[in-house]
Amino acid sequence: MTKTVFLALCTFTFLFSFQSSLEDRLYSLNRQLMCPICDGLTLEQSQANVAVEMRAEIKKMVIKGMNDQEIKDYYVEKYGLYILADPPKKGFDALIFIGPLLFGLLGLIILYKYLFS
Questions:
Q1: 84 φ, ψ (degrees, to nearest 5)
Q2: Does position 80 have pLDDT exceeding 60, yes or no?
Q3: How many other C-beta atoms are found inside a 10 Å radius of the C-beta of residue 65?
Q4: Are the beta carbons of 32 and 74 closer than 8 angstroms?
Q5: What is the pLDDT of residue 50?
Q6: Number of neighbours of residue 108 by Cβ within 10 angstroms
Q7: What DSSP state is assigned to residue 67?
Q8: 23 falls in which pLDDT band (50, 70, 90)?
Q9: d(CA 55, CA 30)
Q10: Range among 5-9, 13-17, 22-26 rated most confident
Q11: CB contact set of 63 (below 8 Å; sequence gap of 6+)
């Protein structure tokens, strides 16, 4: 009797932890992909029919065993890089992130020369 109860508790714990990790993974993926028809909304935020269908499709992909990168690559191939909420920073896009740092540094240098010369 004790073994049966222990086995049942272990089974339920395993199933609930698997469900929790699955939900966490789906939540993370849905926050990393943008809705293709909404402006500035991730799949997690959007209630459009396309976003609901994409969330269901992602859930099926995760259950089939695809990893996160394969799923993102599938949607990038289908919709382009703008589907990613955090696209890779390379080329001209990198200047958007480096530019303010360079101008801030240049401003500090000019301020330093102006105050101490």
A1: -80, 135
A2: yes
A3: 7
A4: no
A5: 93
A6: 10
A7: -
A8: confident
A9: 7
A10: 22-26
A11: 22
pLDDT value for 116: 84
Q: How many CB atoms lie within 10 A of CB 90?
A: 7
Given the structure tokens 């696209």, which residue do they identify?
87
d(CA 100, CA 91): 16
The answer to whether residues 58 and 29 touch, using CB atoms and an 8 Å cutoff, is yes
Tokens of residue 78, six digits: 């289908």
The pair of structure tokens assigned to 26 is 């789906």
Residue range 2-86, CATH number: 1.10.8.640
Rounded CA gap, 22 and 59, in Å? 9
Packed helices 49-64 and 2-32: angle between N→C axes, nearest 10 degrees? 130
91: left (phi over 0), alpha (psi -120 to 50) or beta: left
pTM equals 0.62
pLDDT at 17 over 60: no
